[in-house]
Predict the 3D structure of the following.
Amino acid sequence: MKKKSEVTLKQIIQVIHRAINSVDNRLLNHGERVAYIMLNLLRAQGRHSEKEILELCAISIFHDIGAYKVAERDKLVTIDTVAPFDHAIYGSLFIKYFSPLSKLYKVVLTHHFSSMYYTENKIDIISEEGLLLNFADNIDRIYSFKKASTIDYMMSNKKEYLIEYIELLIDADAKNNLIDKLIDGSYVEELYDFWGTKTVTREEIISYSKMLAYSIDFRSEATVKHTILVEAVSYQIAKLYGLDEDTLEEIKVAAALHDIGKIAIPIEILEKPGKLTDEEFEIMKSHAIIGYNILSDLKVDDIRDIGTLHHEKLDGSGYPFGLKNSDITPEMRIVAIGDIVSALLGVRSYKEEFNKEKVIKILKNMTQYNKIDKNIANLFIENYDFIIKEATKESSDLMAKYLNITDEYNNLLKGFS
């Protein structure tokens, strides 16, 4: 019997699906159908274990995640006709560097290459599973307007597809009424029940949550740079504060996830080049409760609270819950200060990086009015140079990896164009 404390891949994907759908529901609803088609094709093919099929179906639901980057945001409906390689390449690099499914990044990279393209160009990074994903992607698009006559349509245009893939589709449909289930919607429950067969570890939960957190980079580069520094500064403060190794790891993870709720904040507010209006600020503030809700019911309440409650203030004037004093743990207080420091040091279109003296003055002012922890703030101030030096060094590798995606993206795009 399954323990109540266990979390399944079904729950993780539902959480990510719910969060990203808050931005736009077109791609992941398409992703659900493609994942279900892949499940049936892979089973009919019989070459992969159930564990491998689970992972391939998980990557399938996120295969268009690259289309969420800002440059693609207004092309969601036409991504297959307008620069289709762009989002496939960017999405594959995101999966490669910022997800627990990194070993499958070539599947995403390949999903806009037809078998014909592969045959003509013989590119060595093409993935066989990616080619099948391309076929599944096509099935969904054809099904959307051909419905019950989907297979007949594909048979009449079989020169465009591998005959092996068409035979897989016919076999899968005969065994499991694939097309009928797509039409009546019953595929959804079956797909999620399949993901429900896999329990995930705490480490996997954290890894998938980080994947969601970093997906914000498609909408706001400044938010990701801020998050990277929050994680590094919070960790350095926590070390000097004398916390044990397990708690230090909790703080690192919580800091990485602290702004996860910003995925649902409109880009016009996230990237506004100036002061927010009162109405816009209220919308921005909602990221705290959104993040709290995203991470609830995943058995990581400790990390959820440390990360998403970083805007609570000791005097009770913070949000989302108006906690005060003893309600706010030392770990939460540390990440709160890490968040403030990173924001003050960040460069935005409307502000330069604040210098040391100004950062210290703001922190002291906040302690005077009982907004943040005086002892932790003083610990940071007394060790300012050391903490900033170590945090900069610690975050440099991750920052470089993030920034280098652009170079790798451009190089791959040239190779495929």
In short: Residues 384-416 form the longest helix (33 residues). The chain has two domains: 7-201, 220-406.
